[in-house]
Amino acid sequence: MKKPSSKFNAFIVLSIITISLNQIEAQGCVAIRNGSATCSHEMNPGQGGEGWQFNTSYRYYKSFRHYRGKEEQVERVENGSDVRNYSNFLDMSLIRNFNNRWSLSVNLPFQSVRRTSLYEHDGKTRHETSAVGLGDVRFSVNAWLFKPSEKGNIQIGLGIKLPTGDYRYQYYLINPRDQNGTSTTRGGTASATAIKYRTATMSVPDQYMVRAGVNYSISKFTVSAGARLEGIPSEDLVGESNGFRRPGYVIALEPSISYQLNRFNIFAAVPIALERDRVQSDSDKRRTADTGTFTQGDAAFADYSINLGFSFRFGNSGM
């Protein structure tokens, strides 16, 4: 009987989008966004070459734990005043692999999000708002930095997004600009403080994600253990950082498993939050400097997220 093959593989994935935007959860009350569980390139070092590949991934999480800095506001859950965000994302990508290092991809993101809260309504009765639709189409170039091998590699990606999402839809805040034109007053009049510190309109922030870990493969199964860092910065790398945003980051432990069957690959991953931090926004910093009193808003985070998906390779000679 043939002994199943096995191997270790270390990986690091850097994903940076500077001409960017974020889905509703980044603006509404959450400091993270959607991100598939596997590499954006979706091709392991040393695997395959030229050809096409289709990927789809689904992500779900419920954010309800409020943090100011690294300190959780546990009373929000205890007294029922927590904001609850139920986020569902489906990403579909078509990737053109030029060789075993370079690829070009186009991504179609679909979102279904639901939000319930007290303070945005009468403060006594929990009400619900929701939105469903297509987000902003993304184009990106991805590359492995080193010659593919079984020992490890580093992948980087850089891309842009197009304004295919409709920012005018309530709580559906997608538009590649400094601010997206959506008022934060919820039908009221902006206060003098909001105008002074530029929080009367929603911001369009950058986003980032870094993943690192180790894969262990045996036969058709691959088990991964790694760490994920993702979040929203308080200031963008390019352009202005005006408008209201809830910046922060999450450091998570990310176990995952995948199964390879001919040209199909199925995967599942569950990042579990280890550290959550709602950092000062640009407006928080300006207000702190003006008043001499430290100011820092809060944001809601999830305990974990569920990531599922599959990919299909059309072969090495194109479609």
The major beta sheet can be summarized as:
11 strands, mixed, barrel
Helix and strand sequence: EHEEHEEEEEEHEEEEEEHEE
| Helical amount | under 10%
**Would you identify the regions where 5 or more consecutive residues have pLDDT less than 50?**
17-28, 36-46
Which structural class fits the helix and strand makeup? mainly beta
What strand line-up does the widest sheet have?
A: 1-8-7-5-4-2-17-14-13-12-11
Distance between the termini: 36 Å
Number of strands: 17
Coarse shape: elongated
- Percent strand equals over 45%
Round the Cα radius of gyration to an integer and report it.
Answer: 21 Å
Mean pLDDT: 81
Report on the architecture of this protein:
With 319 residues, the protein is mostly beta strands. The chain has helices spanning 24-28, 75-78, 192-196, 282-291; strands spanning 6-19, 51-68, 71-72, 84-97, 102-117, 127-134, 138-144, 152-161, 179-183, 201-203, 207-218, 221-232, 248-261, 264-269, 272-277, 299-302, 306-313. The protein starts with 5 loop residues before the first strand and ends in a 6-residue tail after the last strand. Mean pLDDT is 81; it is low at 17-28 and 36-46.
